[in-house]
Amino acid sequence: MAVATNPLEPGRVYRKLSNGPLVDVFMPDMRSYRGPNGADKETSYGRAAHFLAPTQIAWLTRELKASKATWKVIAADMPISIYVVYDADHNFGSEAISQLDNGAPLGRELEIADLLSFMRREKVRNTVWLTADVHYTAAHWYDPSAAQFQDFDPFWEFVSGPIHAGTFGPGDLDQTFGPQLKYVKAPIKEQGQNLPPSDGLQFFGHVEVDGGTRQMKVTLRDVADHALWSTTIDPVAS
After folding, report:
1. What domains can be seen in the chain, in order of their start residue?
2. For the segment 221-230, what is each residue's pLDDT rounded down to a tens digit?
3. Is the pLDDT reported for residue 91 higher than 50?
């Protein structure tokens, strides 16, 4: 997808795409601004805990608050709670947001916690997270009543892709933000990991919004275009 050049920030890729009155798509950059991999156990926000980093967070919160669209779709590089992507030394540190401690927010989770709290406080309704990165497909319902950190409104996260890459997973879910696994399709133990695309475990998602009811329907599909699982979400009044 083409990205317009920003003269004030060359190389910037985070942006918003508007699709009429029903959908705004926010595309943050979760790779260019984050701090180095490490233990990720910081209890206060600083450079080591950056993921989006302050400038991008300021943009995202400003644009989310200003959005008049029914649905605010956050097309994220990485999932919020799946702990699966290790760094090169395979000891500690990870490219993931969560560190599978299942407790209060630490490290990179602090930024996500602040963002979720902002959306609740400012009444940014009807947010849906779409992501890939982990090489399988899943649907997660985030429920504050089941979470260690509870200052947020419930929301969905849908995972699919990338297309035409080795299939892995499923990853473990960190419970800091209370994700509930509603559906998953990934290699079973007997199949192993890093399966080739020829095995058919390639996935994508399809999203449609009804212009009349404003309902959003999300369907998870495989490479043969079989509908694996779907849900219809009713918009919440702002």
Report:
1. 15-233 (3.30.750.180)
2. 999 999 999 9
3. no
